[in-house]
Design goal:
Order of helices and strands: HHHHEEH
Number of strands: 2
Oligomer: single chain
Strand content: 15-25%
């Protein structure tokens, strides 16, 4: 079902991909590989994440790990995540 939706929505996703900067796309690729951005360490990573949150691609969630809260970044829309996963596979 998802491949059919991705094919039919190809113009939307192509336009969405064009809206990403190289840094944003790189961060999204790392996110689909399971890496979390280290927001505390890099100012520009925070700026990139904020930009993707404003575009409604990502969302921040507070997660409790070992009795301490941490920020977890995830995709807001699972179908966009699937598209980014597909792009990442094609890049390899």
């Amino acid at each position: 079902m998802i491949p059919i939706v991705l094919r039919r929505a190809k113009p939307y996703f192509r336009e969405l991909q064009r809206s990403f900067s190289a840094e944003e796309l790189n961060l999204l690729y790392r996110l689909v590989r399971g890496e979390q951005p280290q927001l505390e360490n890099k100012v520009d990573k925070t700026i990139i994440v904020r930009s993707l949150i404003r575009k409604e691609i990502l969302e921040k969630q507070m997660v409790c790990v070992n009795d301490s809260e941490t920020t977890h970044i995830s995709f807001q829309v699972p179908l966009v995540q699937k598209y980014i996963e597909k792009l990442a596979e094609e890049e390899m």
